[in-house]
Amino acid sequence: MAEVSVIEAVHETLDEVLAADERVFLLGEDLEAGGVFRATDGLSAKYPGRVLDAPLAESSIIGITIGAAHYGQRPIAEIQFADFIHAGFDQLCSEASRWSWRTRGEQYLPMVVRTPWGGGVHGGQHHSQSIEAYYAHMPGIKVVAPSFPADYRSLLKAAIADPNPVLFLEHKRTYRLIRQEVEGAPAEDRIGKSRITRHGDDLTVFAYGLMLHESLAAAEELAGEGIECTVVDLLTLNPLDRETILEAARATGKVLIVHEDTLTGGLGGELAGIIAEHAFEDLDAPIRRLAGPDVPPMPFHEVMESAFMPDRTKIAAAARDLAAY
Amino acid sequence: MTASQTRVPRSSEMLDDYLLSEEQLESMYRYMLLSRRLEERMMTLNRQGRADFVIAGAGQEAAQVGAGMALKAGVDYAAPYYRDLGVMLVLGMSAREAMLNALGKLDDPNSFGRQMPSHWGSARRRVLTQSSVVATQLVHAVGVALGAKMRNDPIVAFASCGEGSTSRGDFHEALNFAAIHKLPVIFFVENNGYAISERTEKEMPVPHVADRASAYGIQSAVVDGLDAIAVYQTVRPAVDQARRGAGPFLIEAKCFRMWAHSSDDDHRRYRPREELENWASRDPIALFRTRVEEDCLFPPEDLDAIESGVEVEVRAAAKWALDQPDPTPEDMYGFIYREGDDG
């Protein structure tokens, strides 16, 4: 069985759900030509009229998705780069997130917004950002950020089956970097569940997306030094899987949270808050956050870009400090 | 002119296909009056400290009722805006429900006390839930129409807004997409001359919102929003042709906001006294009554009977609604996510 890359997993899942349900359609920029990352390659010809190019206007891409989902279709929007999603912030946060709440569930939106996020591609300020914290703040939107191809497949299917708006974040650096033999691989198919991907007694690392893979690499390196890490793949960023998060934090008593997003107001603050509030007595060290610096966006030049991003070396260094505390 | 049982329509002004029946004309009058009397009552309740907030469509009833009656209630989708009580009444909302909404009561079918009043929504009446963010609903209507077109479902999506909303990007994005895909959307702009305090010339440099339609390659019309019959006769053919696949239509109804922006606003700060005095003589409901009387369509006693019926209905609805249960603190929870499958 061949290995599948992240982008292949996304592509084949879109193909599968288009085939399975006539109500599913795709809307976004350049989709008919296959999309800039080739996620919709060939799908326009295979499913005529159901892969739609949208004008370059993110607010309406999301707003039209809302209307079509309300009507009873199962739309999947693509925002070409997550950095541009904020033009649709109102539509996601002022409308989609509360459609069910403000009608007591009489009206609801089975919709998905897919978007590539994250750095490490020399994309500069508007092709590299982490946008999850803005949207994970909003009750009513589910935010999913898988790391492995098998999870991309299962969680994208779960997102499409979900009767709520789901923001599905695809780390663009991992699209072709991360490959996996997906048959028999663990695959989370429930939105709202995190997974402990590696067990170790010395400290617990929380991460998602590219940083999950960097954390696993760091854990491997540290194991050679006798430091054993538990590594948690968060998978869903909203609503958070508090149970697994607390279980994993309590298991080692030392917590390292890693994200590319800038530190202040990043998701790490919320994780640290949950752990400090509910597992304080199980902690043996201050919670440590390793995040992008509070510089507005990701810089372009590779020297500055790699200085901005956490990586396996920085994660290992932070983990050593924490283990020694 | 004496009242007469003989119906003499001014057929020269009417499109033969869109003549209104006697019954429809009666409904038109009744809905306009009901809307006005409900809003007057709501404002009284506000001044009595019993309703926290009122935002009204007084002066725009002819536009709302004329347009609403051009739709197939319960079949077509509507994304109205917060002044559209008249549209909601035509689509089936009762006086009691309007009062529950005005008071934020637990049983308000629009949002169960979760939203400010006049933020409409009704799954069974096919009214999309709406927020206070203006123009977002135009894009939602486009999405509904896209879905319907994909399924060959012959519905029309009606989206309304004030002229203030047409400054937002979503107005442009909605018209553009609807035009590209020839979607069955009626964009209905109730131009009441003001976005809160900003006069139209501060909002746009062209005289008519409808002028913008040519930029999207779609049809448009400007209609006297004080004339319910003219509005119906403009919107109805647009709805019919959109249903047949002719694409979207932009209709601008020239209206007048009789009252301040909301119960929290005092428009004497920014509106000249003469403007309000001049327009008071052009109340669309009074104009309608004069017209149908002059045309001998109805004897005055019939219209008087409608008026007294509406008065009684509104009073009773307000009294009833005041006694209905308020939400409890726990009622804010639940339905943040829909549980289960996608239905």
Using brief descriptors, characterize the structure shown.
heterodimer; A: 325 residues; alpha/beta; Rossmann fold; 2 domains; 7-stranded mixed sheet; 5-stranded mixed sheet; 14 strands; 37% helix; B: 343 residues; 5-stranded parallel sheet; two-stranded antiparallel ribbon; 12 helices
Structural class of the helices, strands and pairings of chain B?
Answer: alpha/beta
Which range does the strand content of chain B fall in? Answer: 5-15%
Count of separate DSSP helical elements of chain B: 12
Provide the low-confidence segments of chain B as ranges. 1-15
Q: Multimeric state of these chains? A: heterodimer
Average pLDDT level of chain A: 97
Order of helices and strands of chain A: EHEHEHEHEHEHEHEEEHEEHEHEHH
Are there runs of chain A of 5+ residues with pLDDT below 50, and where? none
- Rounded radius of gyration of chain A (Å): 19 Å
What overall form of chain A do the CA principal axes indicate?
Answer: globular
Number of strands of chain A: 14
Q: Report the CATH C-level class of chain B.
A: Alpha Beta
Q: How many structural domains in the coordinates of chain A?
A: 2
Helix amount of chain A: 25-40%
Question: Can you walk through the features of this model?
Answer:
The complex is a heterodimer of chains A (325) and B (343). Chain A is α/β, with parallel strands linked by helices and 325 residues long. Chain A has two domains: 4-180, Rossmann fold (3-Layer(aba) Sandwich); 195-324, Rossmann fold (3-Layer(aba) Sandwich), CATH 3.40.50.920. Chain A is 37% helix and 19% strand. Chain A has twelve helices and 14 strands. In chain A, helix 6 links the parallel strand 6 and strand 7. Chain A is globular. The model of chain A has no long low-confidence stretch (mean pLDDT 97). Chain B has 343 residues and is an alpha/beta fold. Chain B has one domain (11-332): Rossmann fold (3-Layer(aba) Sandwich), CATH 3.40.50.970. In chain B, the strands form two sheets. Chain B has a five-stranded parallel β-sheet with strand order 1-2-3-7-6, sandwiched between helices. A two-stranded antiparallel ribbon of chain B has the order 4-5. Chain B is globular. Chain B starts with 21 loop residues before the first helix and ends in a 21-residue tail after the last helix. Chains A and B meet through helix 3 and helix 4 of A and helix 5 and helix 6 of B.
